[in-house]
Amino acid sequence: MKIRITVVLSLVLGLCLLFSVAPRIPAFSSPLLSVQAQDSQDAKFWTFDGHLHPTSSAAGRGGDIGDGLDPQFSLSLAEQGGLGAGFFNTSVDEFYEANHLAVKEVVRQIDHFYRQIGMYPDQIGVATSGDEVRALRSQNKLAAILSIEGAIAIESDLGVLRMLHRLGLREMNLVHNLANNIGDVMYTTGKGSGLTDYGRELVTEMNRLGIVIDLSHTSEQTIMDVIAASTQPVATTHSGARALVDRPGNWSDEMIQALAAKGGVICAAFLPQQVSQEYDRKWHGGRQRGSGIMGLEPLVYRGDPTKIYDFIAERRGGGGSGRMASERHQDIPPLSYLIDTIDHIVRLVGADHVGISSDWGGYPVNILDIEGAGEYQNIAQALLQRGYSREDVARIMGENLLRVFDEVVSTARQ
């Protein structure tokens, strides 16, 4: 009997000891920490990419976001790089709107977005609010936020906008490659024309619904008009600083200051033409952009209506993106050029108004040491080496953009 009592007491004491130390055993969890929890200097910074096209890019090449065939983006690369959230863009060419196919095309792309994400429920989920981003973050999942590059996708119909919002749309830019009935495009002379009456109605409705207004690709006068008209912070999700690289699409100091005064964020993009004057002169200087399908040719299709999708496939064929990447890769600038852009913006308006973006799937090359989603943390390390605090790096890498997204959605008046 004494032996049994001794054994029982030993087991009880052992269990008590185990539970007394259990809380001190480190949990096996992702190292993607909030700024408040970054005790380890080796922790990855949680990252919010302001502009990328992974699902539409996968659709174009016939694969999926998890197959690892895209050198710029895959779910495994995203996890390696610490990507926690992103504005996942659909992109509708101006040709579709001119031929009354834009709504059909954007719905087709949104369908692909949901089907792609549904394939990997343990790694990625759709977010429509800041709370949903944080919930996915707590599960160590990537938050995909449905976005549209080019408001021509709604074909000037606010009812379509409202229905796309019900499908999850939470960010949209107003113009893309060509001016439209909303406002002017950045590829223009001087400050360009301003926001139209319809554009003002669209801004009001996007504010009411809680859809982030993206001013990338937009002319200076339209930008200033939107900032004045919006009741919420706005963003430019893939831009640069004109003071460093004087090109269409980069923002003047005055524009950046107006954006910051509104509480917004400018996302410095990993695009070589936006951070290197030499690259821009060689590959983009003096060339006007047009439709991706038609270039500067007329947009209205005059052929057999039953053959229009064959026509689109023929115009998009040829594998030009691969050749372009090969030709331009030798000229891409170093990562320090991107950090110079971030430095300039921080000196101008502070670290609370800067973010980052890749444009994965939207442009064939990026800059050295940030050529794929596995390399986001190279930016964080470069900022730390420049003397930025970990708190400021966390803001730049993602917290600033989350703040704007959260505020726009939470102040919606639906």
Instruction: Profile the largest sheet.
Output: 6 strands, parallel
List the total number of helices: 17
Shape: globular
On the 0 to 100 scale, the average pLDDT is 89
Give the helix/strand class: alpha/beta
Q: Give the terminus-to-terminus CA distance.
A: 73 Å
Write structural notes for this entry.
β7 (235-239), α10 and β8 (265-269) form a beta-alpha-beta unit. The protein has helices at 2-21, 54-61, 75-81, 94-98, 102-118, 130-138, 158-166, 197-209, 220-229, 253-261, 272-275, 277-283, 308-316, 320-328, 335-349, 376-385, 390-410, and strands at residues 47-52, 83-91, 124-126, 142-149, 171-173, 212-214, 235-239, 265-269, 354-357. It has one domain (44-410): TIM Barrel (Alpha-Beta Barrel). It has 414 residues and is of the alpha/beta class. Strands 1, 2, 3, 4, 5 and 6 form a six-stranded parallel beta sheet that branches.
